[in-house]
Write a structure and sequence with these properties.
α1 packs across α4 and α1 packs across α7. The protein has one domain. Helices cover about 60% and strands about 0% of the residues. It is mainly α and about 150 residues long.
Length: about 150
């Protein structure tokens, strides 16, 4: 019988929520890239989705460039909190080699012990951050169960 640990976190601050949105965007785009699409195809897809939902494609392009720089990529705290708050399947994320189940629970428990500090955001421009959040909302609305991006 499988044992699932239950962890309850406080509501995140606005700053932490923004970082969660950044990481969520990173996971969506990275999954699209890992699905065999070339970067140019993924950027074109992001532009089309942005246009469809009246989001400035330049903002999404900027977010992509910022979030995919090696020093801005999500760390294990970022990943664990994004998976937790966005209800993304940890088992699918584990299979994509983002974060293991053990590391997920370890990082959530460390976060609690640290009294749930704010995460550091990457996107400093409010308009770009809001565009990423809107993009994520529309993407998840369009693809209700977007866990399909993370292969079983």
């Amino acid at each position: 019988m499988a044992f699932e640990k239950k962890i309850t976190l406080k509501e995140p601050t606005a700053q932490t929520l923004q970082r969660i949105e950044e990481v969520h965007f990173y996971l969506i785009v990275d999954a699209l890239l890992k699905s065999g699409n070339f970067e140019s195809s993924v950027l074109s897809m992001l532009e089309n989705i942005s246009d469809m939902f009246k989001i400035n494609p330049a903002y999404i392009q900027h977010a992509f460039e910022q979030l995919f720089r090696s020093y801005n990529r999500p760390d294990f705290f970022d990943l664990a909190l994004t998976v937790y708050y966005k209800n993304i399947s940890i088992r699918r994320i584990d299979k994509q080699k983002y974060i293991s189940l053990k590391t997920y629970y370890t990082k959530l428990n460390e976060y609690i012990k640290l009294e749930q500090p704010n995460l550091t955001t990457v996107l400093k421009d409010t308009e770009i951050a809001m565009s990423v959040q809107h993009f994520n909302q529309q993407f998840t609305r369009l693809f209700k169960d977007y866990n399909f991006l993370f292969k079983e």
